[in-house]
Design brief:
single chain, 6 helices, globular, 5-stranded parallel beta sheet, Rossmann fold, 5 strands, alpha/beta
Amino acid sequence: MSGTHKSLFLSYSRADADEAWIRALDEALQAHDLALWRHSASIAAGDSIPDAISDALRRCDAVLVLLSEQYLKSPWAAFELGAALSQGKRIIPIVPDNIEPARWPAPLRIRQMTPMRTPVETAEAIARALRTDSRMMEAG
């Protein structure tokens, strides 16, 4: 990107997350000047989890939602998604092939999703979406 640093919040379930894939996505996003906030790497012992999440959501430019079986059942995921929606954040769902659209949380069904591919391919799709967003804002 053209030197415009953006901050992304990753909403996901640690219960079934592929941490190696997430670390690789983080590295691939950095190549596009995109910083990734995720609770597993950003909340210190003793911190208030809801406060840390709310603060990170306020500061981020967009929210990535990594859908998974456990995400669909997680109260923390529901909290993060609800907070992002209430703050009017841009939400980009990242969807693996095994999650049918009918099972997505209702607010995500109306959004264009990014298929979960390799971390590099997924990061490129996210960067492309955010560049398009920036161009539309500059033109408007």
